[in-house]
């Protein structure tokens, strides 16, 4: 079985005020380093989508991460997802869609993979206190739908809505599955309560 992760990191980070790939996380020099290291530790095939404005940050990626460039990141997240999907190995069993501003530890990826192996749902998602979190693990059976997403038809949300009742929900003991570092305040708050795994990579 081949599990992959597409890390979306091509955004302009306007609300943050600086490129999110460069933000420190735990004892790692940047979110990009932390994220790619955790993905590698989980044994995932890693595809990192950067934009022309931050392509030089690929030096911060963990070894074996495949970096691809979205030439038009201003077109939004859907364009980055489609860029990453074009580089997926044909043998992929399931894939995570990960955002640079949603740092997650390797043990979460591994727990979701194990849940997928047991339940074979179209989507496997972490849940905390009844609320879905991230990352979402998409079965390869959804690849044809993912490859057809468009912003004008709700993008990724449309795919999730189509299979929502079939999502396998994995209970997670902490709120880190809800961390979304969109603003300086959100980053500061999440960093202050980041789990110990963030500090012992």
Describe what this molecule looks like in 3D.
- It is a single chain.
- By secondary structure, this protein is α/β, with parallel strands linked by helices.
- The protein has a single domain, classed as Spore Coat Polysaccharide Biosynthesis Protein SpsA, Chain A (Alpha-Beta Complex), CATH 3.90.550.10.
- Mean pLDDT is 93; it is low at 196-201.
- A hairpin with a 2-residue loop joins strand 5 (123-128) and strand 6 (131-132).
- It starts with a strand and ends in a 9-residue tail after the last helix.
- It is built from six helices and eight strands; from the N terminus they run E-H-E-E-H-E-H-E-E-E-H-H-E-H.
SSE topology sketch:
Blueprint: E1 2-8, H1 31-41, E2 45-50, E3 66-69, H2 77-85, E4 92-99, H3 106-119, E5 123-128, E6 131-132, E7 136-139, H4 143-146, H5 156-162, E8 168-171, H6 184-192
Parallel strand pairs: 1-2, 1-4, 2-3, 5-8
Antiparallel strand pairs: 4-7, 5-6, 5-7
Provide a short characterization of the protein structure.
With 201 residues, the protein is an alpha/beta fold.
User: How helix-rich are the residues, as a percent range?
Assistant: 25-40%
**Tell me, what is the CATH class?**
Alpha Beta
Classified in CATH, the superfamily is Spore Coat Polysaccharide Biosynthesis Protein SpsA, Chain A
Q: Provide the succession of SSEs.
A: EHEEHEHEEEHHEH
- How many helices? The count is 6
Number of domains: 1
Instruction: Note the beta-strand portion.
Output: 15-25%
The parts where pLDDT drops under 50 for at least 5 residues are: 196-201
Mean pLDDT across every amino acid position? 93
According to CATH, the fold-level topology is Spore Coat Polysaccharide Biosynthesis Protein SpsA, Chain A
Radius of gyration: 16 Å
Structural class: alpha/beta
CATH-derived architecture:
Alpha-Beta Complex
Q: Assign an overall shape.
A: globular
Number of strands: 8
């Amino acid at each position: 079985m081949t599990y992959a992760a597409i890390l979306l990191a091509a955004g302009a980070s306007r609300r943050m005020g600086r490129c999110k790939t460069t933000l420190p996380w735990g004892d790692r020099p940047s979110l990009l380093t932390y994220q790619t290291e955790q993905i590698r530790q989980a044994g995932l095939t890693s595809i990192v989508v950067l934009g022309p404005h931050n392509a030089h940050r690929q030096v911060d990626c963990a070894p074996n991460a495949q970096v691809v460039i979205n030439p038009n990141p201003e077109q939004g997240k859907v364009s980055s997802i489609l860029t990453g999907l074009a580089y997926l190995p044909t043998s992929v069993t399931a894939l995570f869609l990960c955002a640079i501003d949603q740092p997650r530890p390797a043990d979460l990826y591994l727990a979701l993979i194990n849940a997928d192996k047991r339940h074979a749902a179209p989507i496997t998602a972490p849940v905390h206190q009844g609320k879905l979190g991230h990352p979402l693990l998409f079965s390869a059976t959804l690849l044809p739908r993912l490859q057809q997403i468009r912003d004008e038809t709700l993008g990724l949300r449309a795919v999730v809505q189509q299979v929502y009742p079939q999502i396998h929900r994995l209970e997670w003991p902490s709120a880190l599955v809800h961390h979304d570092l969109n603003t300086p305040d959100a980053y500061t708050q999440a960093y202050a309560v980041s789990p110990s795994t963030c500090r012992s990579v």
